[in-house]
Design a protein that fits this description.
7-stranded mixed β-sheet; 18 strands; 0% helix; 38% strand; globular
Length: 129
């Protein structure tokens, strides 16, 4: 049995067939999704559809990333967070608790389409310079 240490001691895991990133046996990643060689998906997290997780990004706990969403760089998606549609989470961003990042959030840095949802309320993000 192959194991990998996601930071809490070694657990059963495998390298994803599409990208080679580490996926815990408890997590679910679709064959159509991409998990880059340095990315990690663990806990009860799910990545599916054509979603992509790469760089040093991590998706864990009960988080889900799906549709055409991107999570990359050193980003973290965890707790019960959802990232979906064409949303992008990157740099050192963290999406957690029950937050939802969706539509075209962060896509091409266009603030017209940036939304998050927390505690059942939808918020439009506004760029502040």
């Amino acid at each position: 049995m192959t194991t990998f240490d996601f930071g809490y001691g070694p657990v059963p895991a495998h390298q994803h067939s599409n990208g080679g990133g580490w996926v815990a046996a408890t997590a679910k990643v679709a064959d159509t999704a991409y998990v880059g060689p340095d990315a990690q998906v663990y806990g009860n997290a799910q990545v599916y559809d054509d979603a992509r997780v790469y760089g040093d990004a991590q998706v864990y706990d009960n988080a889900r990333v799906f549709c055409d969403a991107l999570v990359y760089d050193n980003a973290r998606v965890y707790d019960n967070a959802l990232v979906f549609d064409d949303a992008c989470v990157f740099d050192d961003a963290q999406v957690f608790y029950n937050a939802k990042v969706f539509d075209n959030a962060n896509k091409d840095f266009d603030t017209e389409d940036m939304f998050i949802e927390m505690n059942g309320k939808r918020y439009k993000l506004v760029e502040v310079e």
